[in-house]
């Protein structure tokens, strides 16, 4: 396989890792006002992701850096083009990140309430906005060529807020929400486990309806694509994952429900990547302005180097991250949350 | 109105603001994780609860700070694409590599083991658990190295070639990029400065409690540990700073000349170092100054009879080299290659002066606290107020490094004004500058409150099991579990 295609896949894997892993802790953050009846509840919810949210979010940082190194043109065009949307995501991530550490450090209920708000909004905005961004990538964007070479995004924030983009955002938000709820029921015992499962059923129905609409729209939009069968296949697996996860949740099989959601997120993103291939950004102004994977890629030498680095580090990363999940495999209960902050 | 909406100026302000703010937390993370790791190791080896209590106290301060370092770091990575997309396009092939290596090698590692450390107190055996904090430290150090290598490429670009056809710089040798002499000297310099930063925090916390006669045993240990750390770290900062100065003279002579506001080339005794100088802003007339002969020559060349090039000669040289017919990326629009001299001159002096002052306070402190005598209140006050000084020294150090690089974004390859994003309107940058200023400002107040509160609470009580009957007993691991 060519290195450029390989790196398209590696960046895809890093992004999928980010959405599958950080996706469930976004969902956990979103559930705070719905499942947290008192402070112990809320602390229980937050502690289900306590040891892992930071390493989950690292997948975004690594995906961003890999994008920069492997496809500098894509990095430059997308990040300067989606300027205000990214600004919102960054602010959301900043406030959410400090909130986990700070909410229990202060004194007084008002303090805690503020940080609970930050956790909720900080968890809801990123999947919504990333969903909008990725749907727009699949749909095509008003990009054109710069006179000195390179690409430029000609639209604004409002360009991104079209029906298909918004539906993509909603789907991502709902899937992450369901994913997080299933994770809470997987990680807790007693009342919390039951309540999370019941809410996951409701959110799951909404996610299936919105997700089906989005996948069908995506297929219709790309019906002339050379590899339509792959797009259809990925969309079908995503749908099976989502529905299978829903059924497993109904049956109280939390592990399978979580796996089903993870498969749904993975294949929904693969559907988008397949629809894009062999482009990174498809121009709606003139197809000739589209950014191909080749055109955006770094030199052969950089890609070779990065392949070696990724080849050596990724197995290690997966091993020690898996170990972390193993160490913290026990379910939590309200009793495990000591009274009063430490 | 247009003055305020100039995307280039605003993007530069934003880079300066977000980077300096990020740089308050990063050095403390690097330094404090090391000191916490040492304290926890002391506990594991001696079993003295004193060390465990100190580990918990400084661990808490470390974590409050760590959270800020992580979240402000995400902004650093994204803003190259947001505000400096031309730069990212032009050098992404080579500049992206150390950033990606940082992520894959260091950052995953650090983020994973910090989670294991925070939540692993009652889940991991003692000896494995102490390793997790050492791994966090190793992760922060590796991370710092890759980032400094990326920065060093901007100061002294090596290991690349220009691909005319693609219109960009491409990686030629990753070995050269990672072994850039600027990175090799900048790295230990930054590392020692970071350790010193953490050391003064220990000293200040200890002084605050000792003045009140609280936790005397723990805090005397803290005080002396912190003060020794500072003195050793300062020696490291000074020696590596000298190396760095010589590398800088070779790679960026203009930066060295601007650091000294040296307009005319000088050698031997004339290459003097001015401790303080007051003149007209254009440097044409000197009104008053205190000078040490030969010292500048020594600082820049390592010998007393060397020559140091002045700003005027360098300006002429650069004009010839970089402002030819075919130099769209290398000739600044105003034709000046001189950074803002008063900024470089004063930031250089504040950096060295503040660092030396903090080390001096530590040395005096060690001397007067060697016996358990009562000390006057002002001694403790001085120790407490020394706390922000190495932080300020670090910050002005970065102001010097980055402002001294101007007008280049990559020295000799691309000017800063060429690197800015085309197509991002000034108002969008202004909005993000305002948002970051407000968010960062609010968080700075919170962070300061939380750290001072944790510091004032002092080391936490730790409940002991005493089932073995050997006196001190074992601390109750279950009670230690850290949860949010």
TrEMBL record, chain A:
Family from the record: Belongs to the cytochrome ubiquinol oxidase subunit 2 family.
Protein name: Cytochrome d ubiquinol oxidase subunit II
Major localisation: membrane
Domain of life: Bacteria
Keywords for this protein: Cell membrane, Electron transport, Heme, Iron, Membrane, Metal-binding, Transmembrane, Transmembrane helix, Transport
Source species: Leucobacter muris
UniProt key word Membrane: yes
Membrane-crossing segments per the record: 6-24, 74-98, 118-138, 164-187, 199-221, 227-250, 262-285, 305-328
Subcellular location: Cell membrane
Pfam families hit by this protein: Cyt_bd_oxida_II (PF02322)
Bilayer topology: Multi-pass membrane protein
From TrEMBL, chain B:
Secretion signal span: none
Comp. bias regions, Basic and acidic residues: 459-468
Membrane-spanning intervals of the chain: 20-45, 57-75, 95-119, 131-154, 191-210, 222-241, 348-368, 380-400, 424-446
InterPro entries: Cyt-d_ubiquinol_oxidase_su_1
Keyword Transferase belongs to the record: no
Keywords: Cell membrane, Electron transport, Heme, Iron, Membrane, Metal-binding, Transmembrane, Transmembrane helix, Transport
Subcellular location per the Swiss-Prot or TrEMBL entry: Cell membrane
Pfam families attached to this UniProt entry: Cyt_bd_oxida_I (PF01654)
Membrane topology per record: Multi-pass membrane protein
Region (Disordered): 459-484
Predominant location category: membrane
Family affiliation: Belongs to the cytochrome ubiquinol oxidase subunit 1 family.
Protein name, as recorded: Cytochrome ubiquinol oxidase subunit I
